[in-house]
Amino acid sequence: MTKQDPYSVLFAWTSAIATLGILLNQILVALAVICFFRRTGLDRRLWHTLISPILAAVGLTTCFILVWGNLDLLSGSDSPIVASFPYLVLGTGLFGIVLGYYLRANKPQLYEGLGSLIKRV
């Protein structure tokens, strides 16, 4: 046994992977804002629809890269498991994108129903 406190190790590791996941999610949201306003044209102010989201995406991407580079410091471990966290987060996101395209092409009714829960709430 390693004689480590499982709660402190578990907390440090899960907060590291959660931080990466949240940052990636925020980057994607900043890019989605640009796409949304380009498609709908609901707002034509350049600052709100393009400049601000680009600045946010660049800043958040910088944070993501810094967290990735200092993951051992954030998690308190230089374990290969911890080093795999960024790849796990990126791989999960890529899997979701591929699944979304697959559902849209092959099961359009299921794809359309994905947002129905949000519409009802």
N-end to C-end Cα span:
48 Å
Q: Tell me the number of structural domains.
A: 1
Count the E strands: 0
- Computed Rg: 19 Å
Sheet with the most strands?
Answer: none
What is the H/E string? HHHHHHH
- Shape estimate: extended
Structural class: mainly alpha
The chain-level mean pLDDT equals 92
Helical residues, percent: over 70%
Q: Give the uncertain stretches in residue-range form.
A: none
Percent of sequence in beta strands: under 5%
What is the overall number of helices?
7
Description:
With 121 residues, the protein is an all-alpha fold. It contains seven helices and no strands. α1 runs antiparallel to α2 and α1 packs across α5. The longest helix is centred in the N-terminal third of the chain and has 35 residues. It starts with 5 loop residues before the first helix and ends with a helix. The model has no long low-confidence stretch (mean pLDDT 92).
Outline the secondary-structure elements:
Elements: H1 6-40, H2 46-69, H3 71-75, H4 80-83, H5 85-106, H6 108-113, H7 116-120
Helix pairs in contact: 1-2, 1-5
Question: Can I get a quick summary?
Answer:
83% of the residues lie in helices and 0% in strands.
